[in-house]
Write a structure and sequence with these properties.
about 400 residues; alpha+beta; 6-stranded antiparallel sheet; 13 helices; about 35% helix; about 25% strand; elongated; disordered N terminus
Length: about 400
């Protein structure tokens, strides 16, 4: 079974990019920009309202275009550019369980966002699918929505089967450990394990050391599935960079939990095993919450996606934790949330969190479909491979300006 959380979703796409060449004689910088007053998009701005800074130096802005969906609604130019507004959408799903509201989110996207000519890529835990824009002309949106939701549900079930199986083993094992730490079997203590969970894994007769070792091995197996491959992310960013038009990534990520002992039971273990430091340290090490640091330089990844001029929207599905006697289902995805929230910010995208994935999709789509394209020719440009930080200001203030963090001079 292939590992989950690897984000290997773009491998089939890379072959499509190999024969594309991007040639230019003049360096023009394009910046997609969204401007909000409260939650409302501000659509009345002109060339004179913006200031653009490249590595802190004010630039001469040469054109702005107001774009709604794939249509240029208004032009304001001192130099004529040819904006590419064809839309490429990437829906990437890292989910262990299919939430029925995800079907509603997909349905909303297909029926209210997609139009003929749009390019759509669906990335699931096990496969990548590509839908060309002309399919919208031959297949009904109802049928497309049904197929997309079906693919995501099917692939999540298969792609995360090992992950779910490990969690199913860990829950009753953690309950058994909690029972032992209370100083008695669950039958003659105040602790009452979930009878269904307790019957899944036969742990009767094992010592506390053996129980802890089994739990540790399961925990290691689970963590081995939670890997972010920086190399694949960078490959994805390079692929996106050479795609003409406007590129939007919707990354759906489902909140993760790990079964840990109730803090009251942990406190009991201190008194019960205060003369056995090995057991005490093992218990505390296994069941205390921890944060995993990103195993790569996130700054490099953020710069690569910013350089690709792709808006990455991070939709975090905050499903509620299970309630299991004697255990606390501790969240284990703060690190993922932080990593991809930073990526969204660096690309001028949005990060949103809710248990209602359909509402999340509506919120992000509403905030992302309208934007400005700003153009300027950087003075004294040198192709030295350095990252140039961008800053866009709207004169007068009082608004929120969202845009990519910068570009690489190449």
């Amino acid at each position: 079974m292939r590992k989950a959380f690897l984000l290997l979703l773009v491998l089939p796409l890379l072959a499509l990019a190999q024969d594309i060449r991007h040639e230019t004689t003049t360096i023009n910088i394009e910046i997609p920009v969204r401007v909000f007053k409260g939650n409302a998009f501000v659509d009345g701005l002109t060339l004179d309202d913006f200031e653009v800074y490249d590595n802190g130096q004010l630039q001469k802005l040469e054109a702005i275009y107001l774009v709604k969906k794939a249509t240029i609604e208004r032009r304001n130019e001192t130099k004529i550019f040819t904006p590419q507004t064809a839309r490429h959408f990437y829906l990437l799903f890292e989910i262990a369980e299919f939430d029925p509201r995800l079907r509603e989110a997909v349905d909303f996207f297909v029926k209210n966002v997609l139009v003929p000519g749009d390019d759509l890529v669906i990335g699931t835990p096990i496969k990548t699918y590509r839908m060309k824009g002309e399919i919208l002309l031959t297949a009904g949106k109802e049928e497309i929505s049904r197929r997309v939701a079906g693919l995501v549900r099917h692939d999540a079930l298969i792609g995360y089967s090992e992950y779910r199986a490990i969690l199913d083993e860990m829950k009753p094992l953690a309950q058994r450990i909690a029972s032992v730490l209370e100083g008695a079997s669950s039958s003659d203590s105040d602790f009452h394990a979930d009878p269904f969970l307790s019957n899944i894994v036969p742990t009767t007769g094992l010592s506390i050391e053996e129980l802890l070792q089994d739990y540790s091995q399961l925990q290691d197996r689970l963590q081995s599935l939670r890997v972010i491959d920086a190399g694949k992310l960078l490959e994805f960013a390079r692929y996106l960079k050479i795609q003409e038009g406007q590129k939007t990534v919707f990354l759906f990520y489902q909140r993760e939990f790990l079964p840990k002992l109730d803090p009251k039971i942990l406190a009991m273990s201190g008194a019960k095993y205060n003369d056995n430091l090995d057991i005490l340290q093992t218990i505390n090490g296994l069941f205390q919450s921890y944060r995993r640091d990103a195993p790569f330089n996130m700054e490099d990844v953020n710069k690569a996606f910013s350089d690709s001029s792709t808006a990455v929207h991070f939709l975090y599905i905050a499903k509620p934790a299970e309630k299991i006697g004697g255990l606390v289902m501790a969240e284990q995805s703060e690190d993922i949330f932080s990593t991809f929230s930073e990526m969204a910010k660096a690309t001028g995208g949005l990060a949103a969190s809710s248990a209602n994935i359909s509402a999340l999709m509506n919120e992000v789509v509403e905030a992302s479909e309208n934007y400005y394209l700003l153009y300027y020719t950087p003075a004294g440009h040198r192709a030295d491979g350095a990252f140039h930080a961008l800053r866009v200001k709207v004169k007068g203030g009082g608004v929120k300006v969202v845009h990519r963090a910068g570009y690489i001079a190449d």
